[in-house]
Amino acid sequence: MKTFLGSIVAGLLLALPLAAQAGNVTVKGSDTMVILGQRWAEEFMKKTPGTKVQVTGGGSGVGLAALQNGTTEIAMSSREMKDAEKTKLRTRYNTTGVEIPVAKDGVTFYVSESNPVNALTVEQLRGIYVGDITNWKQVGGPDAPIIIYSRENSSGTYVFVKDHVLDGEDYVASAQTLPGTAAVVNAVAKEKNSIGYGGAAYAKGIKELKIKQGNEEVAPSAENIKTGKYPLSRDLYFYLRNKPSGEAKTFIDFALSPEGQAVVTKVGYFPVK
Amino acid sequence: MEQGLSQPLVAPSLSPAARRRQLREKVIAGLITLMAFTGIAALILIIIFVAKEALGLFLDAEARHEASLSKMFLAQDVPAGRPAFRWQPVSKVPKVSMIPLFVGTLKTTVVSMMVAVPLGVFGALFAAEFAPRRLRELLKPVIELLAGIPSVVLGFFALMVMSTVVKDVFHFDRPLNAMLAGLGLALAIVPVIFTVSEDALTAVPRSYREASLALGATPWETAWKVVLPAAAPGILAACVLGFGRAIGETMIVLMASGNADVISWSLGDSARSLSATIAAEMGEVVVGSPHYSLLFFIGVQLFLFTFVLNMLASSWTRRVVRKLTGGAA
User: Fold this and answer.
1) Is B289 within 8 Å of A84 when comparing Cβ atoms?
2) Any idea what DSSP says for residue B93?
3) Which chain B residues touch A75 with a CB distance below 8 Å?
4) Which of A72, A174, A186 best tests the B interface by mutation, with the highest count of B CBs <10 A?
5) What mean pLDDT do residues A155-172 have?
6) Within chain B, where are the H helices?
7) Which residues of B touch A187 (CB under 8 A)?
């Protein structure tokens, strides 16, 4: 009995690495993109039976680290690769990696549905997040202190907002940070004097702020993000060590095809093409 | 005695069955020792691994510049020009002060202990001394079941249900704060303190209670002045266990505390704890970077805290035991 069990365990252990290699594509990284990656994988596997695409999340950094360690073929990232990460890749594989934008996302600021404020300028948003503006009264709202929600400082979205809204300045210390966009949305939905941010795909149960530019108010709509009129749009990327080939190439080709880009729209992001 | 020494020692001859039994005993003892050493070795390896990753902070020149000890523990001039403690490792000028993290950890832990220790200990005293037998038999498994609830579920409960209640009751500005995190933590710790204390209380010999009652003490006096002190070492162990869980507990704090790196003693403000910082940032940090080493360094500190606390608690326990046994031992 014992030897029987032992042989089963040994067999499983031996089979594991084989199963992980047999013509499979592994995709890992950004939590923002994990739903998108999974939908792509589903559709792709439906179309080409016999192939397997494994998609897991963990965060952009996790995906890029896995790329450096050689444990994933494709890394999903909601931010560009950092210099330190590129250096790592170069020393280990002698490449700088291949970057493929696969979708677009608009970083949106949320407020509670009961908040009368509908649009803010980028300068006002900066004022709120660096701590110069502390009351809704200062931006045409009710007389109430602003409760600020932010993302964890390792999130790609945190860095994006820091670079594109705060001009690289630091967030105010009282900004509360939450793990994941869903948590931010939930917190903003429950606290009527709060503001938060995240991808446009998650915005449910709260109000998305428009960005005021001159006399115009630009909503984070599909059209505005695709044309680049919405000022806070960003690319979502696939990263590979080398030029894609084999199964990975057909998968990426599928993701970039009109069919694949239709999936992007369905998930709630915006096509790159 | 002398006779025994002068005579040569002769091993008694064993029957084959006895010898086999002896051999089996030896093998079993060897196996147990092997397992114990495997466990210890695994622990040591984990400590070495964590320490090694943290060591990058002191060996790497870039890391030493970015996160020196003075930058971690002393006030830094943030661009505004006035010294401050900030935790912003992802910044043009990384700010890596540990002080807000210490304050946050302390705040949430203290709140949780203030709530959980009385609840857990008095609950255990009630279950062990006053509850009718049927009730006690129901109480214990139910509370042990509570101990098995995953902390993510408790954190989620704190975030979704408790946040509005706590905010309204205490009139706080923000729904996610140190108080909420502390109360959420207490939910996780009460069962731990309760079960361990209850075991300690029921382990107090019946004769103590009988002697006390025979001297005319009321059941309450017996419980409070005899049983509770007699079980003190066990109860302290329960509290230390609870403290260890509170300081290391991650998910609840991550979800309920708001994680802002503010330094304030107000329980209505957000708090950022050591453990939640590791959990929140490890996912996206560049492997091998100063920030990465910094997170491992936090891990080392957490380990040191619990280690020192355990040492203090065990030495205190020994002293109490000596006092209880009348200094005879």
Assistant:
1) yes
2) S
3) none
4) A174
5) 88
6) 2-6, 16-59, 61-66, 69-73, 99-125, 133-147, 151-157, 163-170, 178-202, 206-214, 219-221, 228-230, 232-248, 251-256, 274-282, 290-324
7) 159, 175-176
Q: Are B234 and B203 in contact (CB under 8 A)?
A: yes
Q: Which residues contact A136 (CB under 8 A, 6 or more apart)?
A: A115, A117, A142, A143, A144, A145, A146, A193
A116-160 pLDDT per residue, tens: 999 999 999 999 999 999 999 999 889 999 999 998 887 778 888
Q: CB pairs below 8 Å between A and B: how many?
A: 96
| Closest CA in chain A for residue B279 | A179
Of B88, B260, B281, Cβ closest to residue A170: B88
ipTM of the prediction? 0.74
Residue A254's CB is within 10 A of a number of other CB atoms, namely 18
Q: Which residues of B touch A178 (CB under 8 A)?
A: 176, 258-259
Q: What does the DSSP assignment read for B236-289?
A: HHHHHHHHHHHHH--HHHHHHSB--------TTS-B--HHHHHHHHHTTSPTTS
B78-87 pLDDT, tens digit per residue, is 666 667 788 8
pTM of the shown model: 0.78
Q: Tell whether A174 is within 8 A of chain B (Cβ).
A: yes
Q: What dihedral do alpha carbons B67, B71, B73, B74 form, nearest 10°? A: 180
A116 touches chain B (CB under 8 A): no
